[in-house]
Amino acid sequence: MTISPIRVALIDDHRLVLDSLAHQIRAAGMEVVCTATTAEDGLKQMVDGRPDVILLDVELPGRGSFDLASEIRSLFKSAKLLFLTGFSSDVLIDQALRLRASGYLMKFEPINVLLESIRAVAQGEIRFSREIEDRVTFDTVNKRYVLHTAHPLSDLTFRQLEVLRHLAKGESVKEVARLMQLSQKSIDSHKYRIMHKLGIHDRVELARFAFREGLLLP
After folding, report:
1. Is the pTM of this model over 0.70?
2. Choosing a second label site near 179 at 20 to 30 A (CA), which of 82, 137, 185, 216?
């Protein structure tokens, strides 16, 4: 009986990273069905590729990684999400855990650790880098991993967090609408709900809060 190779989708905004990872993953006997630098591109390629494991960074242009991951969850129910990134703030880890991601790895991990992790999550296992593992715990009631300490932004939806990230960068409602491919009315509505939930009614304070909580990446 022939066993089909693990199908992997790669989404990262750095083409050099994508090409390097694709080469290593193919050399390890797996199949790369997607290499994309944006959320939109990734979705298009995945429809045909039907990946088993989706490897993505937490920082993507446009819609953003977690907004994409939320849609992936509904479109490809059997696919495993594995985040590979250089950023480890609690708000990012919390979003990955809320999506029931199969792993969260830092980019300083050796390639053999990454390859072994891809194989493991394809079989239903969970993989974290050590520094992430030390900050999470398994919730036996809800049967999922959570942060040791609840994060103040955990009440926001993935889309609201993405809108907040853009607004905190100083982008206008019109610019955010264009980047996220939503209407200005929708962004305005999200903005109102975000400020209401956080009890913040000033754009400058909103930006400070987002930076302080690790939502804005360098």
Report:
1. yes
2. 82
